[in-house]
Write a structure and sequence with these properties.
The protein is α/β, with parallel strands linked by helices. The protein contains eleven helices and nine strands.
Length: about 300
């Protein structure tokens, strides 16, 4: 049986040994994996660790402020880098999901490398978990935080080495560690969010306008599904349009939003959630009334396999 307390003791000691007298940074996104990694790093390194948040413009609404508050409440300051332009430029005109993921990965590490040089550090603590590695190695999809398994040496390419304290854990074990570390429930129970953020919840090319549309849809779906026990519930903007009709009876040609909800233990397999019909209707009503330009809302009932949880 997994012992979270023992794991924490061992990993704090391991981080101390791995980093030694060097300084390090921990990149956080607001999710449980990176948050656990940052807190383990802080316990081990104290003032020798700088926690950083890359504001890439692809996160959920209010994410930078929420992340900063969570860590400040725990006595850990977070340094925010506004790098939205870097990421939108890197993924401009890209439509293939793997190309988008690789462009995100390259920009993510280049940005971290700049931050590391500014801070004078050569060690990065990263919240990679077992599922990230498995899916990348199997070729299902490239996870942005898996490098050495695909032949990229981060020290040679970006100038820092990476240590990954929770690499052998799956999501349920990470949540147990988060709880033992006294992270708030909002983090412990937070549903998974992809590393490349909303960029892979927009099928096809991303633009600031499309990201803002899916950000609004994400907020609506998360608010209306908060009490559901689903592993993950989110919205996707398709790279297509459908004919609709306005309340005035006029033709409209609008965007298509898909709602996706799944039940899973470790994200390796998943079944679609049977969301109550009235809840789905409420999500649909809010999406079409609060987001201009949406003419149709769909619900995805595909399991994993044959589908992946995310669309891209």
């Amino acid at each position: 049986m997994f012992d979270a307390k023992q794991f924490i003791m061992e990993k704090v000691g391991w981080i101390k040994q791995e980093v030694g007298d060097e300084k390090a940074i921990a990149a956080v996104s607001g999710g449980v994996d990176s948050s656990v990694t940052a807190v383990l790093g802080f316990k081990a390194l104290k003032d020798n660790l700088t926690v950083v948040f890359l504001d890439d413009g692809l996160m959920r609404e209010g994410e930078p402020e929420a992340v900063t508050k969570i860590f400040r409440d725990m006595g850990i300051e977070t340094k925010i880098y506004d790098v939205k332009g870097n990421f939108f430029q890197a993924m401009k005109n890209l439509t293939d999901p793997e190309e988008k993921r690789k462009a995100f990965r390259q920009t993510f590490y280049e940005t971290l490398a700049n931050a590391a040089r500014e801070l004078g550090v050569k060690v990065l603590l990263q919240g990679t978990i077992a599922a990230d590695v498995v899916e990348t190695v199997r070729g299902v999809k490239s996870q942005h935080n898996v490098l050495e398994q695909i032949g990229i040496n981060p020290l040679q390419k970006f100038g820092f080495r990476i240590i990954e304290p929770v690499r052998e854990l799956y999501k349920p074990e990470v949540r147990l560690v988060a709880k033992e570390l006294k992270l708030p429930d909002s983090v412990v129970n937070r549903r998974p969010f992809p590393g490349p953020g909303l960029s892979i919840r927009v099928v096809g090319e991303i633009t600031p306008e499309k990201i803002e549309m899916i950000r609004k849809a994400t907020k609506i779906v998360e608010e209306e599904s908060e009490s559901l026990p689903s592993f993950q519930v989110f919205a996707v903007l398709l790279n297509d349009k459908a004919t609709g009709v306005t309340e005035k009876g006029e033709r409209a040609y609008g965007n298509i939003i898909v709602i996706r909800a799944v039940d899973s233990k470790d994200a390796m397999t998943a079944e679609s959630t049977k969301i109550p019909w009235d809840r789905l209707l409420k999500m649909k009503n809010r999406i079409v009334s609060e987001i201009q330009g949406v003419s149709r809302v769909l619900y995805d009932i595909t399991s994993k396999p044959p589908a992946t949880i995310e669309f891209e």
